[in-house]
């Protein structure tokens, strides 16, 4: 009986020990399961640097004194005379700035590409340098390069000058063409966005109502006429009121001309001074194009004596008024044939070309005999 009791107690002790070992083992395994995920690095997707710096962040900075930097906003007002330094982040950068700095090869402007950024420096800036400054990343595939529209930054810089309220222009009398299909701008820009500007017509003398809809004003562009019409023709000027002086300042004068010529390939005609000529005579053939005032037209000729007979060709253009005072550009090419020979008889073909296309016209010159 005692032996059986001892044997039962021994089995019970073994079960308890085995249960405790399994429980410890299970706890250890559970602990290991909790630790393992902690040791494994879970990497979440990160936004690439280019994505952060393209649309959401400007790549343009202004260099200030003592190595400080400023990211300019849409506009910036600076004092004239103090050197301007801009930097644009990237290994291949393009720049844009007021165009006259290129026109006059202004040596005050310098641009240098460094390893990680491009640097623009303008020394002794003046009120005339007021305008938009922008930069962009240039992407190249072999020899073909293009502007990266997603990596572009710009700022409009005013060089405020109490004596020069308007941005100076090299033209003292500017012609502006009014077209019914697009807005027209009278570009009297100011050097300080706080300056008050008004628009005036010379004849009849009056101040133009600027209501913000039909005519509006932007200090970075000037007065904008949304829907030009013939009634807007005439001579205009802008007047700026200084915040420090009582005498207002007058801008460049602007002549507004109304244009109503459809856009497209040249509208050309051709006419010979005489369609029937005799040997030894002189005649000319005139090729004429009527079109938009600012639309350049090129001429080329084919004629019976091409490459064998000397001729003289004169190209010219001028502005004319047609209809109800509408302004049109007349472009002409005149070919003169002197001392007519048999080879000169035949068809004269004039090819006219503009940015929209080309037009061919022809006429025939015959012998009198």
Automatic annotation (TrEMBL):
Residues 1-21 form the signal peptide. Residues 45-135, 265-367 form the Ig-like domain. The keyword Thylakoid does not apply. It comes from the Eukaryota. Keywords: Disulfide bond, Glycoprotein, Immunoglobulin domain, Repeat, Secreted, Signal. Its main location: secreted. It is found in: Secreted. Forms a complex composed of PDGFRL, TNK2 and GRB2. This is Platelet-derived growth factor receptor-like protein.
């Amino acid at each position: 009986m005692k032996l059986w009791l001892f044997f039962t107690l021994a089995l019970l002790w073994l079960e308890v020990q085995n249960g405790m070992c399994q429980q410890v083992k299970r706890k250890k395994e559970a602990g290991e399961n909790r630790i393992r995920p902690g040791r494994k690095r879970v990497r979440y997707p990160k936004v690439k640097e280019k994505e952060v710096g393209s649309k959401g962040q400007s790549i343009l900075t202004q260099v200030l004194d003592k190595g400080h930097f400023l990211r300019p906003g849409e506009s910036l007002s600076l004092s004239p005379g103090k050197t301007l330094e801009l930097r644009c982040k990237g290994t291949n950068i393009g720049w844009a700035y007021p165009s006259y700095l290129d026109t006059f090869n202004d040596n005050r402007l310098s641009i240098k590409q460094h390893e990680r950024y491009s640097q623009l420096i303008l020394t002794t800036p003046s009120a005339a340098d007021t305008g938009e400054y922008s930069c962009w990343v240039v992407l190249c595939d072999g020899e073909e390069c293009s502007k990266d529209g997603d990596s572009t930054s710009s700022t409009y810089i005013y060089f405020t000058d109490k004596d020069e309220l308007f941005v100076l222009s090299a033209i003292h009398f500017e012609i502006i063409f009014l077209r019914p299909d697009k807005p027209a701008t009278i570009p009297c820009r100011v050097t300080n966005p706080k300056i008050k500007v008004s628009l005036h017509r010379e004849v009849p003398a009056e101040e133009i109502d600027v209501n913000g809809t039909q005519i509006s004003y932007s200090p970075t562009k000037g007065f904008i006429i949304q829907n030009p019409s013939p009634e807007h023709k005439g001579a205009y000027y802008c007047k700026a009121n200084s915040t420090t002086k009582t005498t207002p300042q007058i801008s460049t004068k602007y002549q507004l001309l109304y244009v109503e010529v459809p856009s497209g390939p040249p509208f050309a005609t051709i006419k010979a001074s005489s369609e029937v000529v005799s040997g030894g005579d002189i005649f000319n053939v005139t090729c004429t194009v009527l079109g938009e005032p600012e639309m350049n037209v090129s001429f080329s000729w084919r004629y019976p004596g091409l490459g064998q007979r000397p001729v003289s060709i004169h190209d010219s253009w001028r502005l004319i008024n047609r209809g109800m005072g509408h302004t049109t550009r007349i472009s002409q090419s005149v070919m003169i044939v002197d001392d007519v020979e048999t080879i000169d008889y035949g068809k004269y073909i004039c090819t006219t070309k503009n940015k929209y296309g080309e037009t061919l016209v022809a006429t025939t010159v015959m012998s009198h005999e």
